[in-house]
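User: Please fill in residues for this 413-position structure.
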């Protein structure tokens, strides 16, 4: 990578590995390699429209306390937050462009791909520093199907109705074209055909940790339970926090390819997005798309279409979900040093789905509380350690006369 690059922007797209990458960067925000030194930086909204800039130890600490396990930059701020957000972003970019040091910031948000106009202005205000922007993409049918299970399912609409009413177009080709016109931006587009963390680290020539599963598709049994109990555990399309808790503690559950599109949907999506795929091809080596038939052919989806939503009520997998949640509570309480509470008994054979849901809900509430205790307890432990360290330094300064006293003693020798 050119040493002239002043900043790294990870701009998305959504449902293309962003949570995994942000988790890895939050765990190791300061990295270095052949291409230089990098500092993962997050912008966090606070009260009264304030925006806090986090990096280094403060960022790691905030990520550990977050239910999501990571920190990132905001997407589209509210009107009250917007001025502070964009000013903070300009300051981060301008500081390095003005010679702020050899360490270059890494900034990330999964939805920035759709906001090239805003970033064109921000980068212009910052003096158009040369930046490297990373985008990860996947075929239209795969992306829209994943988006439906993440967001559309919770609206109660079928895939076709959700696509029409919620205006979820696949515009990655057009969005990449727009980013490519911004002065100073070196656009790097990668297919989601390998591990995102490994791909990003390889491109930067650095080493990143391999985080546990982060915001991948949840097991069908878990989705079914959350769908039936959405008011308590998953009230809306963007209320996925509890799924991160399950991913953090619970053993992997049986996974199946869930498919929401019917044959008519497949034909519609492929026809409507042909032009977008052609635009996207211009940003990638031609061979990389043609090596994957999902970009150009319909047949890879024939088996998936047979799946449907029936797996959401598989009774054997619901029983496995109960066992996995119980194991998760034990792991979380052990990690926080607490005593594991008594768990409800496994429902007997013949229990209907309502009975299983009632038992699972009891364990789920306990898991959420245990996870919160673990996250906040880690923060309190860090604070105690920091206070002890600070007090120790203060005592040392008083007994030696501070820095000046140390220098005087040294020179006297």
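Assistant: Residues filled in for all 413 positions:
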């Amino acid at each position: 990578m050119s040493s002239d690059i002043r900043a790294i922007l990870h701009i998305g797209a959504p449902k293309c590995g962003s949570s995994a990458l942000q988790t890895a960067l939050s765990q190791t925000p300061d990295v270095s390699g052949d291409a230089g030194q990098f500092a993962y930086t997050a912008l966090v909204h606070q009260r009264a429209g304030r925006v806090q800039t986090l990096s280094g130890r403060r960022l790691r600490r905030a990520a550990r306390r977050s239910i999501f396990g990571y920190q990132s930059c905001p997407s589209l701020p509210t009107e009250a937050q917007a001025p502070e957000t964009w000013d903070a972003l300009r300051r981060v970019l301008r500081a390095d462009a003005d010679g702020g040091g050899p360490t270059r910031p890494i900034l990330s948000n999964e939805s920035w791909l759709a906001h090239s106009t805003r970033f064109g202005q921000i980068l212009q205000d910052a003096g158009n520093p040369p930046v490297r922007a990373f985008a990860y993409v996947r075929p239209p049918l795969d992306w829209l199907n994943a988006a439906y299970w993440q967001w559309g399912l919770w609206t109660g609409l079928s895939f076709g109705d959700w696509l029409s009413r919620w205006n979820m177009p696949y515009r990655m080709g057009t969005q990449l074209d727009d980013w490519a016109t911004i002065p100073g931006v070196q656009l790097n587009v990668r297919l989601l055909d390998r591990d995102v963390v490994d791909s990003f680290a390889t491109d930067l020539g650095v080493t990143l940790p391999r985080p546990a599963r982060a915001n991948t598709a949840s097991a069908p049994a878990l989705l079914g339970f959350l769908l039936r109990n959405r008011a308590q555990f998953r009230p809306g399309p963007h209320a996925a926090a509890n799924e991160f808790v399950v991913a953090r503690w619970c053993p992997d559950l049986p996974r199946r390819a869930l498919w929401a599109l019917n044959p008519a949907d497949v034909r519609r999506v492929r026809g409507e997005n042909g032009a977008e795929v052609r635009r996207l091809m211009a940003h990638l080596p031609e061979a990389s798309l043609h090596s994957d038939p999902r970009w150009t052919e319909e047949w890879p989806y024939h088996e998936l279409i047979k799946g449907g939503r029936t797996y959401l009520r598989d009774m054997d997998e619901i029983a496995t979900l109960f066992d996995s949640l119980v194991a998760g509570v034990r792991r979380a309480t052990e990690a926080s040093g607490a005593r594991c509470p008594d768990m409800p008994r496994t429902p007997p054979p013949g229990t209907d789905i309502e009975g299983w849901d009632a038992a699972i809900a009891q364990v789920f509430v306990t898991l959420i509380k245990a996870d919160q205790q673990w996250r906040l307890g880690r923060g309190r432990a860090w604070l105690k350690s920091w206070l002890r360290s600070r007090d120790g330094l203060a005592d040392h300064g008083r007994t030696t006369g501070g820095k000046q006293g140390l220098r005087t003693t040294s020179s006297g020798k």
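For context: Confidence is low (pLDDT under 50) at residues 396-413.
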